[in-house]
Amino acid sequence: MRRLMAGTILGTGMALAAWSAHAQETVRFWYHFDNPDNPMDALIADFEAAHPDIRIEAENVPWNSYYDNLYTAIVGGNAPDAAMVKLFAQPRLLEMGALEPLDDRIEAWAGKDDILDNLFELNAAPDGSRYYLPLQYVVLYLYYRTDMFAEAGLEPPATCEAFREAAIALTRDTDGDGNNDVYGFGFRGGRGGHDHWATFVLPQSNGFDGLTSEAGIAATQWVIDLHRTDGVFPPSAPNDGFQEIIGAFQSGVTAMTIHHIGSSAGMVEALGDKVSAVPVPECGGGRWTSFGDESTAILAHSEVKDAAWEWISFLSSAGANAKFNEATGQLPVTRTDSEAWTLHEQRFVKATMDSLPYAALLPNVPETSDFVNTVWPVAMQRALTGEITAEDMNAEIAALYGK
Amino acid sequence: MSRSAPLAARVLPYALLSPAVVVTLAIVFFPMLQAAWMSLHELILFRPNVMPFVWLDNFAAAFSDEVFWISLRHTGIWIGLTVPLQLLLGLATALLLNRPFWWRPLARALIIIPWALPSVVIALMWSWIYDSNYGALNDFLLRMDILQRSVPWLADPDTALYAIILTLTWQGFPFFAVMILAGLQAIPESYYEAAAIDGAGPWRQFWHITLPGIAGVLVTAILLRVIWVANSIDVIFVMTGGGPGYATYTLPLYAFLKARTNLDYGYGSALAVLFTVMLMAVVVLYLRRTARAVAQ
Lengths: 403, 296
Known about the structure:
Chain A has 18 helices and ten strands. With 403 residues, chain A is α/β, with parallel strands linked by helices.
């Protein structure tokens, strides 16, 4: 009898332990963060203090293989419960059946009305549902060296023609050794540089529909000529990625480049008031710049969706969102944080706001992943090094999109 | 009892071997079979529920794929230059290190550094050396007046592959140096003395004593190195990711990018299987040598 009682007590104890373990749910969260000044631990501590029954296991996955890892983890059944995601990946994630619809949760969420206008619309999926919760945003603009422009008596370019003239004028040999050591524009020929190309080409090619048109081909040829004929990109441009274009601009090797407010703090630290920004130039009568989005999503297979929602909605709430963006250097998505925002110099915020009206996204289709990751970089590098023509390059991209 | 003892004796070696065999089967042979199986399917990772059996379509696609042939040619150059260069540099180093000088122990330790460094560190270090804006190589060549303007070594399709081959040569030569040095030290000094008495000069001594003495080590080291170099993608991946364009694509890198970045595991596996079949010739040679060495 005593043994039976002991057994019962032990059993009850185990059940209780199991219940309490169950009560504390663990949310696995993946994000990517280049900034070494990572606020995630502080954010998690804040969140866990307010939600003692939820534990966050956040993993910083390197950007270069972020999506490779995410897709593979989803197929392998080891995906996180929630993750940071960009719009270009949404069609593919939907095709994999990996995203949880958030419509009902967003409708019931108190923080909904604090999210900036249009962000939910921009993030909506082609089927009209919402799977993404906005987290931060940026718009690409043109950085330029105010001192170099002043010295050359130039104004920041408003059109493609003025851009080319300025780039040619600013490409020069400053130390008299017969070699150019300053280049007009830091072009990103490696992965992620499609935004540079798109800025110059898409307004003239009627987006992706007219890439194989005469105007579309001429626009790509114009970009290639900037490198091969005018020589206004550094010779390393075909391989250059984020680190290289930012490094070259900060060290004075280039006089212009295209990036977003996320790099402005580093630019000011390196160059002080010798750097400013304007919207990207107008090409062929139109403008195109990239809207850089970042959202969070809940993965469909998750068994702790409610807890995952608590966490991601916390990250997009006033206060936490500001803290997050102070570290990424991007812009908060809540009205409250936006109004109180003082992190960036006004000139960069203005360039961002001025660019918003024509900021656009890449086509919301699964092919965009391949466009960004392989098709564009390979074709652009081959075109810049003279292996293929502008016509070949545009035809490859048009073929990918079935245009 | 008399029957079970020989049985136990017969089973024991297998029992002792089985953990290693089971692990090898599980982590080497099973994935290999799986790759062969995947190569016969159309398997796009983001459509995991659609996986039609396509027979040899992926292989046929490879043979009519321009990038496959580009990558194959680069793989030929990659192996054909890297291994001989490593061998020559390794041989020269080993011969030097086999001579007595007071800081020889230190030199032997230092020479191993490139081999001991992680590939990613080597790749990043050499990317900076080759950088066209700040790189040490361009700076040096410009100051020496060998170059008139800086060369974007990794961004020019004519130089990118060779620049990486040089990096890999630097990384891999200590392996040859150490192997050959071990071979050199196994050659009895009396051979050289006898040859010297017979009037053989340094070159004849090298040709008739040193080279035959290290031939066994050389062949094994070359075979191993061919297999390793052929499969090595880490340095290329970090330095150029295959670019500019396809300028530094080798077959294993192409297979990796197809599977991992494009998520096309069917085609990626087919490329890997094709390359494995090609490498098989080298592997068979190596296995034969090992078997013969064991038999002796």
